[in-house]
Protein: Multisubunit sodium/proton antiporter MrpE subunit
Amino acid sequence: MHVTPRRRGARASIASVITIIVLWTLLWGDPSVGNLLGGALIAAAVLFALPMTRIRFSGTLRPWPALQLIARFHVDLVLASWHVSVLAFRWRHTPKGAIIGVKLRCANDLVLTSVAQICALVPGTLVVDAHRLTGTLYLHVLDLAGSGGAEKVRADTLELEGRVLRAIGSRADLERAGLVGESR
Structure:
């Protein structure tokens, strides 16, 4: 069965409306008719008054690498939170921060955004800028010495990009990044 782009867009919009209604109802904690209608109004306002640019997804969702990505994110989150809390309680120590540019191997919008969001969610790292055309992320690192230096931060970010590509990248993206023959 061939689905036209217009039908695919309508299906995505309907799925988005249903998702927003469900989330709205869960936030209120009461599946009343008023909350369902309120959720529908919010969904209509968000999706039709403020349309988002569509991102083409040409990859494949791979469940096992996606689970590994999520698990490693949680480990990184706990470790970085511990590191930042230790820094907060060290008296007379001023961490030396730095802004580091990391050129990603895949300039795909979805991969760039995913890597940037995961980096931004981990304490101690902040995305200062993302250059879409070159696929470069500029990261502010709170404690450069505690993070292992600039090259370690770059290597860790490229490793994160590899995990994202293994989870959602296309075969062509994996080949461009040199990740096809790896066993991880």
Q: What stands out?
A: The mean pLDDT is 86. Residues 63-177 form one domain.
